[in-house]
Specification:
Layout: H1 5-13, H2 15-47, H3 52-101, H4 104-109, H5 112-154, H6 156-165, H7 168-203, H8 205-210, H9 214-267, H10 272-313, E1 335-344, E2 347-357, E3 362-366, H11 373-379, E4 388-393, E5 396-397, H12 403-408, E6 410-413, H13 424-428, H14 437-446, H15 450-453, H16 473-486, E7 491-495, H17 503-517, E8 521-525, H18 529-532, E9 537-542, E10 545-550, H19 552-558, H20 561-575, H21 579-587, H22 590-594
Parallel strand pairs: 3-8, 3-9, 6-7, 7-8
Antiparallel strand pairs: 1-2, 1-4, 4-5, 9-10
Length: 595
């Protein structure tokens, strides 16, 4: 049970129900002990030639004992299994809550399918161990102890024979239990692989089809599925050996008791009724002993699953509220980067960033692909924390600001838009309580989405597929912009949020956004000069460092990297080349760029 130590605190919350369940188990086994005793009296009464009325009384007593036993077993299982379901509910909520608190780095190193397997299969295994497993473990302990104690009062020698033979099962279970645990862990790992493969193919089905990879993906899935089947069969092979072994040991115990008990009956040391009672107790012990094998399986599987859950639950979030956080209630929106550096492993993403964004101003960040623009933006809502230096909001270290307040004050449109499998209006109003239809429509108008909504079959109630698969790339981005605008944030971050819309739509969105940006701090990231040229201040990043900064006119006169980008994009516009192609060209070596 060592693997279940983390679950004991959940059991402690339901100790009252657990105690009542144990009392019901004890009462059920006490009633079960009465049945063979009444049977003994009835058989001895027959041997003594007693009347049918006495036999009828014994029959009624047998029925009453069975009824009392059944009633108490019902309540024992109802309470025990109910407890397990409550614990499963609490554990699943705690797991989901813990996942919600994890930082971005956790999800970059964890497979979605593996997390899904832990939240489903592993939790179910823990529930089975704490429900039927724990109930039957208590029942086996009580039944074995009580039955052997009564058997000792009948015949010590026969009781010792039974007490020695039946526990042989425990030795078999102890040896096989370790093998079961190891093999069950393999089963769960293979199930995680299957979940990951299905999830990836479901999310990326358009890429699979576009590259005609259905057959290779199917073959790879079949290989993973075969590994899962092989691991499951290997696990079940051990279980298959246990059940015949349990019946065999029970049968041996019955034969031994019948042989030596028969000798005692012949010698007059034991009545026929007592021998029948004794054999009835052997039969009554058979299921608890069989259940012990089943319980061992459940406990070993549950312990393996609990360990997998603990691997996640014990991982502390890298980003959370500081113990000495400030009692800040509202933010003005001033953002400052003081000597900020950011590293992922051995890779340096940002280096010595010093920048001040006054409250209510619009600062744009441009630069080649991989220069660190998105990483800079992700620092503001603390999706990442700086490796060195400080991120300041209103002059306060962001680590000392309550995380909920900070993120509630930031409207963030990331480069990769994510939409939920919900109606369009709920996606726009995500994070905003009681958003009125008028406000939703206003936000859609700002992002130039309203014209598209008119073409949707159910307007704002149109249900979006997984990750917004029913929308185009531009519609997804405009939905994300509407979501951020509706949130009415103090700080608005647009991370290349207009890359999938045409130039005309971009100009219209920017024109409508200017009214929104006037009253809030805006961090605007883009590879298009046309998007950022009207910003109050422009920062140029290259290789994680600020290489230029100033207004559009200042940077053009400086004739550096920004001016080169500007000229190339003007040329691209004249030639009709896509701006994204121009960004790729900008990141290419100098000789290729010259060509």
């Amino acid at each position: 049970m060592r693997g279940f130590r983390p679950a004991f605190r959940y059991l402690a919350r339901h100790k009252r129900k657990l105690a009542i369940s144990i009392i019901c188990v004890i009462a059920a086994n006490a009633a079960a002990l009465l049945g063979p005793y009444v049977l003994r009296l009835g058989i001895d009464a027959i041997a003594a030639g007693r009347s049918m009325r006495v036999l009828f009384t014994f029959g009624v007593l047998l029925l009453l004992a069975a009824g009392v036993e059944g009633s108490f077993r019902f309540f024992a299982r109802y309470l025990g299994n109910g407890n397990a379901r409550d614990i499963e509910y609490e554990l699943r909520n705690d797991l989901f809550r813990h996942l919600q608190r994890q930082d971005a780095g956790f999800f970059q190193t964890s497979r979605t399918g593996d997390l899904m397997a832990r939240a489903t299969n592993d939790l179910n295994a823990v529930q089975r161990a704490l429900g039927p497993g724990l109930t039957n473990l208590i029942n086996t302990t009580v039944a074995f102890t009580g039955t052997v104690a009564v058997m000792l009062t009948i015949n010590v020698r026969l009781a010792l024979y039974a007490a020695v033979i039946l526990p042989i099962m425990s030795v078999v279970f102890s040896v096989s239990g370790r093998i079961i645990q190891r093999r069950f862990e393999k089963v769960q790992e293979r199930f995680s692989d299957i979940s990951t493969k299905v999830q990836e193919n479901g999310s990326g089905i358009r890429v699979v089809k576009a590259y005609a990879q259905e057959e290779p993906e199917l073959q790879e899935f079949q290989a993973i599925n075969r590994q899962y089947v092989d691991a499951s069969i290997s696990h079940l092979r051990i279980q298959a050996v246990l059940w015949p072994a349990m019946f065999t040991v029970g049968g041996v115990a019955t034969v031994v008791v019948l042989y030596f008990g028969g000798l005692d009956v012949t010698a007059g040391r034991l009545t026929v009724g007592q021998l029948v009672q004794f054999i009835a107790y052997i039969g009554a012990l058979r299921w608890p002993m069989i259940a012990l094998g089943w319980v061992v399986n459940l406990v070993q599987e549950g312990a393996a699953s609990m360990s997998r859950l603990q691997d996640v639950l014990e991982r502390a979030p890298a980003i959370e509220d500081a113990p000495n956080r400030r009692p800040v209630r509202e933010l003005r929106g001033e953002v400052g980067f003081r000597g900020v550096s950011l590293r992922h492993g051995h890779a340096t993403v940002l280096s010595d960033i010093n920048l001040k964004v006054p409250a209510g101003s619009t600062v744009a960040v441009v630069g080649p692909t991989g220069s660190g623009k998105s990483s800079l933006a992700a620092l503001v809502p603390r999706l990442w924390d700086p490796t060195d230096g400080q991120l300041l909001v209103d002059g306060i270290d962001a680590r000392l600001i309550p995380l909920e307040l900070l993120r509630r004050s930031v409207g963030y449109v990331p480069q990769e838009t994510f939409l939920f499998s919900e109606p369009l209006e709920e996606n726009i109003a995500y994070g905003v309580e009681d958003a009125s239809p008028e406000r939703v429509e206003w936000a859609a108008a700002v992002s130039q989405l309203e014209r598209d909504v008119e073409q949707f079959p159910h307007g704002y109630a149109t249900f979006l597929g997984e990750r917004g698969v029913t929308l185009s790339g531009g519609q997804k981005q405009r939905t994300a912009i509407a979501r951020a605008v509706l949130k009415d944030p103090t700080i608005l971050i647009l991370d290349d949020a207009l890359s999938s819309v045409d130039t005309y739509t971009e100009e219209e969105i920017l024109r409508r956004l200017r009214g929104v940006m006037e009253t809030r701090t805006t961090l605007l990231i883009s590879h298009r000069i046309s998007t950022v040229q009207h910003a109050d201040h422009i920062v140029v990043l290259d290789d994680g460092r600020i290489v230029e900064q100033g207004t559009h006119n200042d940077l053009v006169r400086l004739d550096g990297l920004y001016a080169s980008m500007y000229r190339r994009q003007l040329l691209a516009a004249e030639l009709g080349v896509d701006a994204e192609d121009e960004e790729i060209e900008l990141a290419a070596p100098t000789d290729s760029a010259a060509k």
